[in-house]
Write a structure and sequence with these properties.
By secondary structure, the protein is an alpha/beta fold. Helices cover 30% and strands 18% of the residues. The chain has a 4-stranded parallel β-sheet, covered by helices on one side. The relative contact order is 0.23.
């Protein structure tokens, strides 16, 4: 019978810098989710906030297939009858490219209090500049 490892005390969180320049959406999103959940740490405990803070830069330079830009849709509903709004990936990347990464990573998070808490550790920026230099984020490949 295997026992589940449970960390004692508060886990140490680090800051990680991920550059999304010329990366595909799914591959970068899985990498970000991996770091947010803390699965890269040997002391990983499911159901606890073990992960690190993740800063994502150059989101506007993500790489997509041309067919994907026109065929992938994002949906949102206002809550009123007939309130379904559809946005194509091409338009979403022009208006708000941060939301594309945010939605992709949220799809990989647990849909509970822990997932919402972990999503607050995700910081996304369009360009190369970010205000988290004081935290000395470690760059990952």
């Amino acid at each position: 019978m295997e026992k589940t490892y449970v960390i004692k005390g508060t886990p140490q969180s680090e800051w990680i810098l991920v550059d999304a320049n010329e990366e595909t959406l799914g591959r970068i999103a899985t990498q970000i989710a991996h770091y947010l959940l803390g699965k890269h740490k040997p002391s990983f405990t499911p159901g606890s906030a073990m992960g690190d803070f993740v800063v994502v830069i150059n989101v506007s330079k993500l790489k997509f297939a041309q067919k994907k830009l026109d065929s992938k849709n994002y949906y949102r509903h206002s809550g009123y009858p007939g309130g379904l709004t559809t946005t194509v990936l091409r338009d979403m990347m022009q208006r708000n490219p941060e939301r594309v990464i945010e939605k992709a990573v949220w799809g990989m998070m647990p849909k509970n209090r822990l997932g919402r808490q972990l999503m607050t550790r995700l910081k996304i920026y369009r360009g190369n500049d970010h205000p988290h230099a004081a935290q000395h984020p470690q760059t990952v490949a």
